[in-house]
What does this fold into?
Amino acid sequence: MNSLPLHRPRRLRRSSVMRATVRETRVSSDQLMMPHFVLPQANGREAIASMPGIERLGSETLVPQVEQDLRLGIRSVMLFGLAAPEHKDAVGSAASDSSGSQAEAVRRLKAEFGDDLLVVTDVCLCGYTDHGHCGIVNGKTVVNDASVDRLVEVALAHAEAGADMVAPSDMMDGRVGAIRRGLDARGLVETGVLAYSAKYASAYYGPFRDAADSSPQFGDRRSYQMDPPNVREALREVRLDDAEGADMVMVKPALAYLDVIRAVRAVTDLPLAAYNVSGEYSAVKAAAERGWLDEGSVVRENLVAMRRAGADILITYHARKALQEGWL
Ligand code: PBG
Ligand code: ZN
It folds into this structure.
């Protein structure tokens, strides 16, 4: 036989130790950021039907949960806020309330954990407006510049409460620069901005809107969030946010947009976050509950896919269980 293959890539797959030795991509707990939904009642706790394993917690109830997560190695959190229906209005006043759910949670977490925990807040209006849009509405139109003014106020409230970073998720034009200038003018020069730069109008946000009670009451978000078929537009958004002073950028969702993560990685030197969103989480949980997928193996494969595409930071609801179960 003179046809023996010269090249045998399988040699590098023979044993577990060989595979580990040549492994190109790893996921570490330092890269995982856990999202939380903060209730207005400090001692609240509620299950979320469409997101098994995730609960809405009050700012007080959140503390022991975050402490447990810290022991597992989760050292960063992303905080979303909820507001009672009677506290929602046209301009989302409660979003910038210095004693609102997010500001309260920031204060408690920073008082408890200080610099051992990175606290990032989602800056948006949709959980606080009676119409459920991410900005100020005029008729059926979400107007840009008046929305930006409100978002700056929200970011300032979170920063003054002690947030390490604020993360605008509204997709209004110019908000990163406006927030940066607003923070600097208040002397909050150390507060960072994590920009949801390339955020698509995605059906994968369904369970989140249920969790955060933030569905638009008319129309949809397609006049501000990005059109899923576009990738060059994502690069433009990232370059703008970079130029406006963002400290980190984000692509969202993650799994259906791995090509976007890859492309964005090449146009900025900033740290890049991928948001493994609610629908991506719930789809895996639902299939696993039916015994159709092995949850741990699928979660490991999904998280490493985001890293392989080029993400530095993985925002994921799977973070806690992945570490508890040793899935990484
Ligand atoms: C609100 C916001 C959304 C998400 C993060 N911030 C939903 C939306 O834009 O409707 C989605 C997160 C997820 O699905 O996990 N601006
Ligand atoms: Zn929003």
About this structure: The chain is about 35% helix and 20% strand.
